[in-house]
Specification:
There is one protein chain. The protein is 21% helix and 39% strand. It contains two helices and seven strands. Strands 1, 2, 3, 4, 5, 6 and 7 form a seven-stranded antiparallel β-sheet that branches. A hairpin with a 2-residue loop joins strand 5 (67-76) and strand 6 (79-80). The radius of gyration is 18 Å and the shape is elongated.
Length: 112
Amino acid sequence: MGLDKHQLAGLDDRERGFSRPVEFERDGDGYRAILRYETLRVRTEAHLTQNEALTILIQTLQSHGYRQLKTQMSFRDGLYLGSQELWVEYPDPPEAMPEQRGLLGRILSWFR
């Protein structure tokens, strides 16, 4: 049985658009997701499914400032799908609100 491959697109930590393949490798009974982008190489720990490994990869990238991420499966079980599959979008995590100090900050917080 072949492995899946996804195309990952979004904005990197410098707000530049990118699109790169995400590959998977078997590790015992699990799967690792692997992304290579410029000098960055992200390789997840082994997970039970390829989807779990992909989700962890997305969360890792988001924790490093990557935004507007979406994936499209291009290979399923080693078979080429082209661009038949729909894109799956991953919502950005909420950004932390900067803490406002002083009397004005406390007054403004009442209106949030």
